[in-house]
TrEMBL record:
Domain Glycosyl-hydrolase family 116 catalytic region: 1-354
Example of a GO biological process term: central nervous system development
Full protein name: Non-lysosomal glucosylceramidase
Segments forming a coiled coil: none
GO MF term set: beta-glucosidase activity; galactosylceramidase activity; glucosylceramidase activity; glycosyltransferase activity
Record localization: Endoplasmic reticulum membrane; Golgi apparatus membrane
Keyword terms, alphabetized: Cholesterol metabolism, Endoplasmic reticulum, Glycosidase, Glycosyltransferase, Golgi apparatus, Hydrolase, Lipid metabolism, Membrane, Sphingolipid metabolism, Steroid metabolism, Sterol metabolism, Transferase
Amino acid sequence: MYNTYDVHFYASFALIMLWPKLELSLQYDMALATLGEDLTWRRYLMSGVMAPVKRRNVIPHDIGDPDDEPWLRVNAYVIHDTADWKDLNLKFVLQVYRDYYLTGDQGFLRDMWPVCLAVMESEMKFDKDQDGLIENGGYADQTYDAWVTTGPSAYCGGLWLAAVAVMVQMAALCGTQDIQDKFSSILSRGQQAYERLLWNGRYYNYDCSSRPQSCSIMSDQCAGQWFLRASGLGEGETEVFPTQHVVRALQTIFEFNVQAFAGGTMGAVNGMQPQGVPDRSSVQSDEVWVGVVYGLAATMIQEGLTWEGFQTAEGCYRTVWERLGLGFQTPEAYCQKRVFRSLAYMRPLSIWAMQLALQQQHKKAELQTSRAQD
């Protein structure tokens, strides 16, 4: 498949930092595909249900199969009906704003704004109780496509709040006060719901199901904050998640998912139970995802936990390059006992988010020094 978009969310840091015009071009392709539809019905493998290939005004999972007609026929992925996924629309909005922030391309922002409005309107239906926070549907309806999520969740709920916050910023830039007010109201209600339903004093619970795994510690729970900080938001007046909660959650992830897993030498396991045992409720919760680890490391750097960030990334790097010998065919995932899958995966390109976090950290320090001298 070309441009698997839930994965591109992580990998896109390489494009926007090295070849920004390629990233913007890809975004235009995704926007165009979003507005189209393919009402051909097909059966999806995981659920067995019949549904259209592509619905209008939702981000496609991918841009097509190289063995078919990519760009013309999208959504080669047939495991789930991704029109019902909770993360794809949000990841588009977050990437659009980050790309605008890093390039300053106002024409790009104006072109993407109507598409962002359309996909966020599609996303609204997932907030069934109107508390400002979306709910997952009780199956694996996001990039962790074998890890069941039910109700409000740390991952998708966090992405949702971050995307809503970005919509507030874009509405202000585009001069649409009514839309800005609408999303500001949603954000305020959603923040309260997110903290009330998911924060447990140490981290954000995986989800709100009645399963024992609902209190698992997810290494990727701060993905929304990661993108906010990469986009110059997420602190001060634009704070979405309480800073002390973000830092505490990252410290908990480092303590449990990193240090309590394989002696702290293999990066961060996706899911860890609060008892210090990996979450084995899913094949994916028990894995380490290389691209997620580098994104987590970048988030730690953004929040001032630079040493922890590099310790986390080092375990992953040394596992891939030295223990597995897969440096030039980096896998999507590996387990503690030298089992790996999906070689030459693009998600690990998120390592460039670490570089961006360091650059932004240094720029901020230089600015503070300059102000002190003045």
